[in-house]
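User: For a reading group we're discussing how well predicted structures match intuition. Take 3-demethoxyubiquinol 3-hydroxylase. Before you show the prediction, I'll give you the sequence so everyone sees exactly what went in.
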Amino acid sequence: MRPDHTQHHDGATPVPTPRTAPTGAGALPGDPDARTLVERMIRVDQAGEYGAARIYQGQLAVMGKGPHGATIRHMAAQEQVHLHSFNRMMVARRVRPTVLSPLWHVAGFALGAATAMMGSRAAMACTVAVEEEIDRHYRAQAEALGPDEAPLRDTIERFRAEELEHRDTGLAHGAERATGYRGLKAVIGAGSRAAIWLSQRF
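Assistant: Thanks. Here is the predicted 3D structure of 3-demethoxyubiquinol 3-hydroxylase, as structure tokens, for the group to look at:
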């Protein structure tokens, strides 16, 4: 059973109530044990933050000197902090990185540059699409972590709050007015979900 939720400050995004059972409690036969579950979380989160950092690098390569450059640099700097944190966790817990990192290196930059070349609104639409998927992903992780993994859960929730700020920034900068917004958002969102699934497992 999923835990109850309280509401995020904007009334739209639920905040998970910390679970009291240990991580992995209630797992069914065939489900990963607690250690494997946490390793998958760290692996996919490191991959996701790496991909996000590359997206912003791609956008900055096109838009860095424009009026939105400072905004993108601010979001990119936060993603670098997230990435460094997960890099340290991987070393401390001896978690292997995803074998797909070279793909995310290229794909992330290409997505960022391509949406930036479509215009600032498309670039912001990309941010909204990616950050909404990361929000859902981080929320599910926080729900699955017990008090034995409270520091990891707190880190994920802190980063999740910053990802939501990025989403809100994208919306404030005209993401929904991008040409073909719904289709663009759907495609990028689907790609993000596929990347999450693959990075957890490979």
